[in-house]
Amino acid sequence: xxxxxxxxxxGTFTDAVLDDNAGTxxxxxxxxxxxxxxxGVIDVLEVLxxxxxxxxxxxxxxxxxxxxxxxxxxxxxxMGDVPPVGFITTKGHRDSIYIMNVEGRYLGGSPDxxxxxxxxxxxxxxxxxxxxxxxxxxxxxxxxxxxxxxxDAARRSIRELLGDGISAIAVSLLWSFRNPVHExxxxxxxxxxxxxxxxxxxxxxxxxxxxxxxNATTIMSTQIGPGLRDYLGNLxxxxxxxxxxxxxxxxxxxxxxxxxxxxxxxxxxxxxxxLTGGVVGAVSLGAQLGHRNIIATDVGGTTxxxxxxxxxxxVRASTTVINRHPINVPTLEVHAIGSGGGxxxxxxxxxxxxxxxxxxxxxxxxxxxxxxxxxxxNADANLVLGILPERGLLGGRKPLDKNLAREAIRNRIAxxxxxxxxxxxxxxxxxxxxxxxxxxxxxxxxxxxxxxDFVLYAFGGAGPAHCAAYAREVGVREVIVPLGQxxxxxxxxxxxxxxxxxxxxxxxxxxLPIDPARVEGNFDQLEAQVRxxxxxxxxxxxxxxxxxxxxMRYAMQLAEVATPVSAGSLDAAAIVQASxxxxxxxxxxxxxxxxxxxxxxxxxTYRVRATGILPFSPALPEVKSADSSDAASARISTRKxxxxxxxxxxxxxxxxxxxxxxxxxLQGPAIVEVPTTTVVVPHETIGTVDRLGNLTIVAx
Length: 700
Fold this sequence. Notes:
The chain is an alpha+beta fold. It is about 30% helix and about 25% strand.
């Protein structure tokens, strides 16, 4: 029997899902183990092996592959918890990362924030100026060498960085995506001086026009690359010692996986991999339930993540934003804020209650964990409110201390604001719901979609506890919470469902009409690149799917639109068809009359995405149907719970998710306990269990 395993390493818990492609789906959860997260991976795999009834070595020897996703890279960037890196760029252009193309004042902001010009400010530079150095060299727009690289000066800059303790260097030179010769030579020079230094080149990480975004992408990839390399190397070594037969794969932001050995080279592509797993899982589950428009939400220990599925396909983007910096990587469109279950509540200098972005993470964890944490978090508030059980999580294996939660909230929130502990906890819950609702609004409404046309899927450690509240914020009518084997490990389920997806891109700006041979030559080059990458993955595919697209724009406008291009040989008619598709998509995004056809249309960047289809297609099994809609047999207790600060604490029925059957109906307010969190069915809503064991929550 061959297994596929998805492993999701979060800041607080590590989840795993096993599928044998024959109807068996097992899930497990274990505490994460920072700073060595690989221990937590082995721990959760041992739990899976115990469920299978076999030794860990036997399970791994029969494993086709492990697909791994982690929030560690994203969390590090969101919280600024990254090591110092060096930056080398073309002489005269160092300050581009501090000027930030003016974008640093508004990137990632809401329309209200964009209009508040006086309230805007730039974020800090990605590296201190003493670590951003210049070299003498220059290429022109066609990649021709205008000024040769001054190698002696480059060596001096490299030695200056290394002498200051820098062990990772980002190199991004002007027009290097047209000719990487100088960037590659600088990497050679670095390794001549010290072969252990980690080096990222913009021509490999982000071969795309526009200086600031390319610089930011390369620097951020360098910030997380060494840590990812060391972690994956250590993890794979441990797995091989336990007889893992298949490859270790790492989830990427584009919705597919890549071999672990290749992931650090383009580390930025793994940012958001856990929510990507959740979106892939949402597509898979949506196909089973007949849902075409889905809002996928994941509330983990550190971050709140949102992705969209529209008409059955995940929404993709060629650029994302982290901490007001543009990131150039093909990705499933994922939005994130630091508002997870472990997000720390605090009072600012103006006396306002704030939540996040900093998190208590697994160590020391929320105050209620009893591991030395003293700052209040969302989890502490949920425990005080009765949402989380006092006996703890994981069936009591993760005890929770309500007194410690109350003490943290009293000292840091209640007393400074003149509130009772209970009211302070309710305020934390309300602010967290408002913050997550704001991100939903930005992701859905401000993108031109009507939330009433979508079903919201909620997962992650704290998602089920807050989903009804943040869904109400934007008017979503229906919420789905998986309750079966993957109840609290849905992202890991998505990882197990994923295929290999590789993307390559290059910028070659030109105005239409354009020679079809030039277009086809660019696509041929990129397709050869991704096929070579597929061959290095160590896997056999049932089929390979190739998709091509061009980023196009109206001349004299900045907004680029990823436009699909037909397969096969290209002629002038195919280019015209692509331009018509671009205009249609542009109108859908920006409205009638927003285009500027008279200025002409330009092609900026070419992209090829290759999907290697794996011989596994996990699906959730159906659960037993109830004899009636009465869920009384699944009720395990009643406790005082505050789900609305205006209503206060009320007697609330508590249900065991393992006893809920298809057809059971829950009248809110109610609580459903799953291994690591609880599902909240609030006042004036009804929860119904479907044939796959998911809980659907709708307003009455």
